[in-house]
Design goal:
This protein is 19% helix and 53% strand. By secondary structure, it is of the alpha+beta class. It has a single domain, classed as Immunoglobulin-like (Sandwich), CATH 2.60.40.2000. A six-stranded antiparallel β-sheet has the order 1-2-6-5-4-3, with no helix packed on it. The two termini are 25 Å apart. The relative contact order is 0.20.
């Protein structure tokens, strides 16, 4: 049993989202807003791409006219015309 299986089993037993235990970023999207929770920090910010550190790599929020509206230790909010998310 690997670490991934252990995290999944614990999350299921405690009825929690798996990303809560794994420190993997959770991204909620609407057409004009992206909310990243449990991100590992801001790596880059331009009007067409916001790049975040995540538990297993990087997350890129893509679009145009992107604006970083708020950021704290756990949550980051980006607004603009969101076109997609890439995981690297």
């Amino acid at each position: 049993m690997g670490m991934r299986d252990t995290v999944a089993d614990l999350a299921a037993a405690w009825e929690l989202p798996e990303e809560t235990l794994s420190r993997e970023a959770s991204i909620r999207l609407t057409r004009h807003q992206a909310v990243a929770e449990q991100h590992g920090g801001l790596l880059g910010y331009e009007d067409e791409c916001v790049e975040l550190r995540s538990g297993r790599g990087r997350v890129r929020i893509l679009g145009r006219e992107l604006v970083l509206r708020a950021m704290d230790r756990d949550t980051l909010i980006v607004t603009g015309h969101i076109s997609g998310v890439e995981y690297a």
